[in-house]
Amino acid sequence: MEKDTLDLSYDIAIRAYETARARLDEVNRFFNIVASTSLSLALSVPILVRVLNIEKFTWWFFFALCLFVVTYGLCAIGRLWGHLIFLHPGLIHENYQDMDDVSFKREILYWSGDHCGKNLNLIESKWRMAVGAMVTLGCQAICSVFWVLDLDLFLLVELMVVFRLL
User: Fold this and answer.
1) In 3-state terms, what secondary structure has residue 1?
2) How far apart are the C-alpha atoms of 140 and 134, rounded to whole Å?
3) How many beta carbons lie within 10 A of that of residue 145, not counting itself?
4) pLDDT in tens, 134-146
């Protein structure tokens, strides 16, 4: 590998860490949005029901409550689970301080490639969990609407057939 190519590769490898951090921050921001929306929905629907003087608690209420717990749990686990892998400055100081520039950059390039793969897998897994939380939030909203409007399951099936979801 020529020195110019090595320098270019080294710069790209170092920027990969920043890119991974930015992507993980976006996924965590998405978790925050879903969790706050779910909490807002869970708190506002009972107030609306009280204002409308709806006295009965149907199964839709309990479904919505369970889906709130699932959504919030997915968001909490998703936010807390996993961490990015970075080059540790202490290890660089201990193991690579006496290397020449070319050997050092090759080592960093090797380890950043390994870390990049692991970081991308973490981000992808967290994103899938975030999408799952978003789906449960949508189901929570549907159950809440059905509870407030006092609708039954047959109407939901009819709506799904009309919109060709079944």
Assistant:
1) coil
2) 10
3) 13
4) 999 999 998 888 8
Q: Report the 10 Å Cβ neighbour count for 10.
A: 18
116/98 Cα distance (integer angstroms): 25
* Cα separation, 50 vs 72, whole angstroms: 24
pTM, two decimals, is 0.74
CB-CB neighbours of 124 under 10 Å: 12
Top mean pLDDT of 59-63, 76-80, 141-145, 154-158 is at: 76-80
For the chain, strand residue ranges (E) read: none
Q: Whole-angstrom Cα distance, residue 58 to residue 101?
A: 70
Instruction: Say which DSSP state 87 is in.
Output: -
Residue in the block written with tokens 């009819």: 158
CB atoms within 10 A of CB 80: 10
Tokens of 120: 């991308």
In a 3-state reduction of DSSP, which class is residue 163? coil
CA-CA-CA-CA torsion for 108, 27, 29, 132, nearest 10 degrees? Answer: -160
Residue carrying the six token digits 């050092």: 104
Q: How many CA atoms lie within 13 A of 146 on its CB side?
A: 22
Round to whole Å and give the CA distance between 163 and 143.
Answer: 18
